[in-house]
Design brief:
The longest helix is centred in the N-terminal third of the chain and has 26 residues, at 52-77. The relative contact order is 0.13. Helix 3 runs antiparallel to helix 4 (90-100). It is built from nine helices and no strands. By secondary structure, the protein is mostly helical.
């Protein structure tokens, strides 16, 4: 677990570590706030408005089914020795990643992302450029909801514990859909983490065996 990397895991209940990740996320304030973010902004034909909380629960349900199907197919056709192991938790990991996939999105989705970017590149926030590092400036002028989700889950906010939500490396790795830092935002439409959280992702990627495709001196990007 990020933030408790060197602590011995002592079990207190029968849940798997990946189920604990899921429970920890569901009972969190950032997850509950998704109910106030509209997924689509239509003129609905009924009183029900689809919000990001409902969307995330639906996606999580599909992710659980797909993950379970994939793991069982691999076991049945390729690796029967993995039956009864943690490999069968793939569905739970995917489900939790689905719950978290919109966690960092601002209101109004991509329009909200653009509004934050424009505030710093063209609005009053432009005056802050000389007061912050070039790395931080790159992060905020290319604000991205996916990267913000990874930040919410890993960053040690003021008064909180190290490691953020202290989730397993497997869950955190599954959440990063675009394994690039904000430094490649000019070449990539999407990226998965701000440079402020780059050391966390490097640690997770090294531990999980995720392949680094960057040459020395290049911006960080993974397979």
């Amino acid at each position: 677990r990020l933030g408790q990397d060197h602590r011995h895991t002592e079990r207190h209940d029968d849940r798997t570590e990946f189920k604990r990740d899921c429970d920890r996320l569901i009972f969190s304030a950032p997850f509950r706030r998704l109910q106030n973010k509209t997924q689509v902004f239509p003129l609905p034909g009924s009183v029900f408005v689809h919000n990001r909380l409902t969307h995330s629960l639906e996606v999580s349900s599909v992710g659980m089914s797909l993950g379970n199907d994939v793991s069982q197919r691999i076991i049945n056709e390729k690796r029967p020795e993995l039956r009864g192991t943690m490999f069968e938790q793939i569905g739970q990991i995917v489900s939790t990643a689905c719950l978290a996939h919109d966690l960092g999105n601002p209101p109004f989705g991509h329009s909200g992302e653009k509004a934050i970017q424009t505030f710093f590149t063209e609005g009053p926030g432009k005056a802050l450029k000389s007061s912050v590092s070039s790395v931080f400036w790159d992060d905020i002028t290319h604000f991205e909801g996916n990267a913000n989700a990874f930040r919410l889950l890993t960053h040690q906010f003021k008064g909180r514990r190290a490691g953020g939500f202290v989730m397993t490396y497997s869950t955190l790795a599954s959440i990063v859909k675009y394994p690039y830092a904000s430094s490649v935002s000019g070449r990539k439409k999407k990226f998965g983490f701000f440079q402020s959280e780059q050391p966390y992702y490097e640690r997770i990627a090294d531990e999980m065996g995720i392949i680094c495709k960057s040459a020395p001196g290049e911006a960080l990007r993974y397979a």
